[in-house]
Amino acid sequence: MFLNLTNHNSDLWGQEQREAAFRMGGEIMDMPFPAVAAEASEGDIELQANRLVEKIKMLHPDMVLCQGEMTLTHRLVSLLGKNGIRTCAACSERRIRENVAKDETVKQAVFRFVRFREYQ
Prior knowledge:
single chain; about 120 residues; alpha/beta; Rossmann fold; five-stranded mixed beta sheet; 3 helices; about 35% helix; globular
């Protein structure tokens, strides 16, 4: 199973990204990446990570796409790796489009999925 631990539901992914996930782990399961308060201490992050890892271990995923708040992501990747669970990040190309109309410029970021890259 490919566990999507992000805040980007796999239903919104393009076909290329879904196919890449399926090749890495089969069925895709979404799990929302938890919110992390700015005031959270390092101990709070450790507790949150440990609880989440226990839930993930029960699912027996082949691969976990882990992207969210940076300190929790770092801790999760480390703990999951110590438990023999592979993790990856989605790599995309960002293209900026600018539209100028009258006195305003509107910038739009468009992301194109390229690949998953495994954390080492």
